[in-house]
């Protein structure tokens, strides 16, 4: 009896990826804003399905013309939860939202999806898709997103952030310490070598007659202001609960 | 009279200027003399010489053509470079001065007498060496410092009024967070400053023999100690006359003052996040120059087949020159520091886990 249960469990475990994949065959292109033609939708659907298989991430393409007053980030998050998206027990996945309400594109990342996409990678993907969106080529933008995301997941791998989200081995820690030690030792030697000779102490005040320096004319003329905006890097340090990230841009 | 040897009025022994006591003390009978007394002695000497005018002219012609001078003490020929103004007799080691090289256009206006004796200079050098962690341990022993030479180096001191302006661009950066966006506002300004200043006593050495970089590191000298020139200060030291006139060193002085003036003006551009100067213009007026002799201790040091040259400010004790580096000590320091840092980091890292 025990043996039979064991075999059933073993079979279940060995088939489990396929079972989850079976879940993944559900619709993953939610074209609520009707931006895609039927053939585009089918093409994207096929692409998404093959990508889910390759990357073991759940992937959804969502278009919306009414986001109920929510921000793109909140809308994507709620949509992801309401449709129980996510691959595996931790709901790994990506969601590509075209928000026509605010004319904004948003890439939502979850758990392992989050591990693959830090802000700079999301920015790079956004750089590529935004021109298509501005141009009205919505399907083309989604397709570009899928290809880019697949390339990043399969070739670039998980982001190794310096603040140690990924458990580095004790040896990498030691390698870092060794690096710091060598730099510190080198810096001390450089300071000593520079101190190994007499150095000039003459400065602009050495031969200046006391109080003789006078400014006779000053100009401080304002002419323009430039403004730059930068999204704040999220703290990637780990913790319990879902890991959620993302980034968006208007088009 | 080709050369001057200052002699003790009491015993006739040669007199040399003593840095410690700032007077002339006879090494033989320990009589002490002030500058006036020494000068009076020279005048008496001159009067006692009974040359006719004709003979003096002939004597002068002879001196102009000849490069050799005779020691008044032992009669041996004094062999010098043609820039040497004070030296020692090669044979009897009497301090000897060649006044013709300090006359007319070569007469210095001022002199800073030596403040540091040979012993004190050696002591300071050894103390300086002790503070250098990379120096080979055998370096800097007393016995090697015998060749310490006190030289009065010819310097041109420039006084001038300077006016100038700088122009450039500056920014004020303000950064704040709104939502999850950091907004950085940069305000751009055109900035400019015009000003004037007076620089005094900017030195430039007038001797080709002296390394300019080495001399620049000895600066500054304290001009409070400048005395009217008297040859008697040179007795017991070497002295050089200039072989680069003030026109030759002037470009180097203006270059220095140009950067100083630019720095002074740029420093008044305050309250900005960044300042970049794009144009500047500096002009010089009322340039005055005086010729002075300043005291320098020079020595060369043979170490492991390489010659190291050092110079010390004979007034303040400031040292110029590059010391040898012991590879073993450098490596030991490097290893020690690296190992220490590594140990602390590892201990800290393990503890935090």
Automatic annotation (TrEMBL), chain A:
| Family annotation (Gene3D superfamilies) | 3.10.310.50
Which domain of life, per UniProt? Bacteria
Q: Which residues form the signal peptide?
A: none
**Alphabetic keyword roster:** Membrane, Transmembrane, Transmembrane helix
Segments traversing the membrane = 174-194
Xref: Pfam families: TPM_phosphatase
Q: Where is each TPM domain found?
A: 29-149
The residue stretches assigned to a coiled coil in this entry are none
Instruction: Extract the PANTHER family matched here.
Output: UPF0603 PROTEIN YGCG (PTHR30373:SF2)
Q: What is the name attached to this protein's record?
A: UPF0603 protein YdjH
UniProtKB/TrEMBL annotation, chain B:
Its transmembrane ranges are 330-352
- Keywords per UniProt: Membrane, Transmembrane, Transmembrane helix
Name under which the protein is recorded: Replication restart DNA helicase PriA
Q: Which organism is it from?
A: Compostibacillus humi
